[in-house]
Design a protein that fits this description.
heterodimer; A: 321 residues; mainly alpha; MetI-like fold; 14 helices; 2 strands; B: 427 residues; alpha/beta; D-Maltodextrin-Binding Protein, domain 2; nine-stranded mixed beta sheet; two-stranded antiparallel ribbon; 18 helices; 43% helix; 15% strand; globular
């Protein structure tokens, strides 16, 4: 397999637009260029049509009063932005997100790293354990949310969680409907952990396997104790690049939280992350695309700033990573 | 493998690649090319019939989809394709109405935004002859500035159904005031059964009825917020009382519009529409009673939410006239189909008075009582009440019912949003 894979690798880098003199040679380049566009073209077209165009359109819409239309005519300047930045529901959705991120990012980080370390140490059936923990990633958020909502965390006596609790004499809990205490966080956090731990675990395993074994050997020779000391001074620093990307990916994923909130508790004002709120005002029944677009762009800017900050703090992408 | 293919094969490979790419692109664009639900082919030339797309949300009762298709097939002047939409119909419809790739004919509820942004056409000409056969409320809910924009298809009263045996056992009479209801729900709650099911959100569906039962309304006739007085605050506060008493069922696998909770014995009472009567009667037999949302006190009246669905013609349709003709045919001329739609699956009141009067299935039992309550206490939606106002009101309800916030303070917040919307719409 590996030899045939090597055969397919193009011997020269795909250098579109670079022209060289010489008949046959030139034809080859032209062919490569064509092939390049053939392969890349559809994706570029898709990206342009389905990502960049909507973003630009959204930017335009954000300056207009656009109810029930994507071709508005009433220019309102920055009013939509002002409205969104003073809209307590939008601000509270950012608050909801913050609570969510405070839980989900560290939890995912620690738990997926722990899983990766465990799976990496297993001597038998390594591939089996890797697959088992990775499998939930293949499940859709909607499907998982419905299972969580309807069978595990439903509020009546025959829900799984309530059945288990009733063995200990605990009264039924309406997991998704109770705001005081806010039990709904348990299903919301746990469904995401179940779905995404495996994915980040794989990233960590890849990182672990890249660590040069001679580092560990040298550490042993120097008298480092296996366990915490090795982990703290060898493994963790060596995983820095992976850790930073896991954190960044995780935070962005948290900003994009929609499916589990929407499917588990719907569009309610005490726990809706920004995307659920924006969906509600722009694509739901309200169809206020002007305010929705402004909110989406504000959110995009926030994500960009936070990612930049994170990159600065952790020094992601620095030479040597 | 590929490296060992002789040079001559390159052409073939190129060709294949290109053809494959093209095919993929074609398939991709075809897949994206707006599935409008209209039958394909059958171009307009040569006197061929026009194609119309008719959109429905997913009705819960078995047989409804087949019925909708049957009606469409029976129409001979156009090819009507029915699009049945499970899930979030509202959002799909909203985006469908933005372009001409959406439906020609669709069901929904009217709000002034649809008219302001030219999404629907007036249907005065097709309803003119039979206007007096529709109830005042059903006309009002579809009228803006004197023009009728939709033909009511079904009327869905929402009331409280209860297990007679459970109330009898506890010695409780059907509540006459909200306080009675709160007390009854508390008394009927045991460790196995909750007093009442009003939705997994804790009772937002009761917001309107509670408001009406206090004598209030969403918007007054002169387009001012009608929910800002102390009586409304008091009625909404009582919804919180019921929630705080833990007498409401929460976290049920199905929501309030499904009779699952009352049928499975999870609750003694449930807020639900008349559509579920056949399902409830099948499960509970005659152990079923009905009452309207009770009045706040002797000064006001009980309330029934008279919801339902209405047929509209999209202004962006390429065949507005043909679409109007079809709507007239189905929802005005075909009494037999209207009766089938209203009575043979779930129960709905036929909007045509002449039909409702002879609907045999609605002449007895809880269905008959529900119809009577609707005639007496029914409230229809106000088309000037926009979704944005609705969202503000729902936020108010969530804060009051679940978080125990002060109703008057929340009312003031919602009033602000409603005022902004009113000034945007009416200046």
């Amino acid at each position: 397999m590996s030899s045939s894979a090597q055969d397919v690798v193009p011997t020269e880098p795909v250098a579109a637009g670079k022209r060289r003199v010489g008949g046959k040679r030139q034809k080859g380049i032209a062919g490569t260029t064509r092939t390049f566009w053939l392969f890349v073209g559809p994706f570029v077209a898709g990206l342009l049509i389905f990502s960049y165009l909507p973003i630009i359109w959204s930017l335009v819409l954000s300056f207009f009063e656009a109810y029930n239309t994507v071709t508005p005519s009433k220019f309102v300047g920055l009013q939509n932005y002002i409205d969104m930045l003073t809209d307590r529901n939008f601000l509270s959705s950012l608050g909801t997100f913050t609570v969510f991120a405070v839980f989900i990012v560290p939890l995912t980080f620690v738990m997926s790293l722990a899983l990766a370390l465990l799976v990496n140490q297993v001597k038998v059936a390594k591939a089996f354990f890797r697959s088992v923990f990775f499998l939930p990633t293949a499940c859709s958020y909607v499907v998982a949310s419905l299972i969580w909502k309807l069978s595990i965390f439903n509020g009546v006596r025959f829900g799984l969680a309530n059945t288990v609790l009733s063995w200990f004499g605990v009264e039924n809990i309406a997991w998704l409907s109770t705001v005081d205490p806010p039990w709904y966080w348990i299903p919301i956090i746990s469904v995401r952990l179940w779905l995404q731990l495996g994915f980040y675990m794989i990233l960590f395993i890849a990182g672990l396997q890249r660590i040069n074994p001679s580092l560990y050997e040298a550490a042993y020779v120097d008298g480092a104790k296996p366990g915490w000391q090795i982990f703290r001074y060898i493994t963790l620093p060596q995983l820095r690049a992976t850790s930073v990307s896991v954190l960044i990916l995780n935070l962005i994923a948290a900003y994009q939280a929609f499916d589990e909130f929407y499917n588990l508790i719907g569009n309610v004002n005490y726990a809706r992350p920004p995307l659920v709120y924006l969906y509600g005002i722009s694509l739901g029944s309200i169809q206020d695309l002007g305010h929705g677009s402004a909110g989406a762009l504000i959110l995009a800017v926030i994500i960009m700033i936070v990612t930049q900050l994170q990159t600065r703090v952790f020094g992601f992408g620095k030479a040597g990573d | 493998m590929p490296a060992h293919v002789p040079n001559a094969g390159l052409n073939r490979r190129d060709l294949l690649k290109r053809a494959g790419g093209l095919a993929a692109l074609a398939a991709f664009t075809a897949a994206c090319g707006g599935n409008t639900g209209r039958p394909s082919g059958g171009g307009g030339s040569g006197g061929a019939k026009v194609n119309l797309a008719q959109w429905f949300h997913q009705y819960g009762e078995a047989g409804t989809q087949q019925a909708a298709i049957k009606y469409a097939k029976a129409y001979t002047d156009a090819n009507v394709a029915v699009q049945w939409t499970p899930g979030d119909y509202g959002s799909k419809l909203a985006s469908g109405l933005l372009s001409s790739n959406g439906p020609d004919v669709f069901e929904s509820q009217l709000n002034i935004g649809m008219v302001k942004s030219n999404q629907v056409v007036p249907l005065d000409d097709i309803i003119a002859d039979v206007k007096s056969d529709f109830s005042e409320g059903d006309l009002a809910t579809n009228t803006i500035d004197g023009k009728v924009y939709g033909i009511r298809m079904i009327v869905d009263p929402q009331v409280i159904y209860y297990r007679k045996s459970m109330l009898d056992k506890a010695g409780i009479k059907p509540p006459e005031t909200i306080d009675d209801l709160v007390a009854a729900a508390k008394e009927l709650t045991t460790d196995k059964v909750k007093g009442i099911f009003v939705g997994n959100d804790g009772g937002n569906a009761l917001g309107g009825p509670a408001l009406w039962s206090s004598g209030g309304t969403y918007l007054t006739d002169d387009k001012k917020p009608g929910f800002t007085n102390d009586r409304a605050a008091s009625a909404l506060g009582k919804l919180h009382q019921m929630y705080a008493d833990k007498s409401v069922l929460l976290g049920a696998p199905t929501d309030w519009w499904d009779p699952g909770a009352i049928n499975q014995g999870l609750v003694a009472m449930q807020w639900i529409g008349m559509w579920a009567v056949p399902g409830m009667v099948k499960a509970l037999g005659d152990d079923l009673g009905v009452f309207a949302f009770p009045a706040l006190d002797a000064q006001s009246k009980p309330a029934v939410y008279s919801g339902g669905w209405t047929q509209f013609v999209s202004a962006k349709s390429a065949n507005v006239d043909a679409a109007k003709k079809f709507v007239k045919w189905l929802w005005i001329d075909q009494a037999e189909f209207q009766e089938d739609w209203c009575l043979n699956y779930g129960f709905h009141i036929p909007p045509r008075k002449s039909l409702a009067a002879k609907a045999a299935k609605l002449q007895s039992g809880v269905a008959a009582e529900t119809v009577k309550l609707t005639t007496e206490f029914g409230h229809t939606d106000n088309p000037s009440w926009t979704p944005k106002m609705g969202t503000a009101f729902t936020d108010l309800l969530t804060n009051v019912i679940k978080k125990g916030a002060d109703p008057s303070a929340e009312i003031t917040k919602a009033e602000k949003t409603v005022d902004q919307e009113l000034s945007r719409l009416f200046g």
